[in-house]
Amino acid sequence: MSDPNPSRAIATLVEQQRIAAFSTSHAGAPAASLVAYALDAPATGALLHLSDLAAHTRNLRHEPRAALLIHEPDGDPRADPQTLARLALSGRVARIATDDPDYAAARASYLARLPHAGPRFAFGDFQLYRLAIDDVAYVGGFARAARLTPAEFASIMRTGAPGAGETP
Question: What is the pTM for the complete model shown?
Answer without folding.
Answer: 0.90
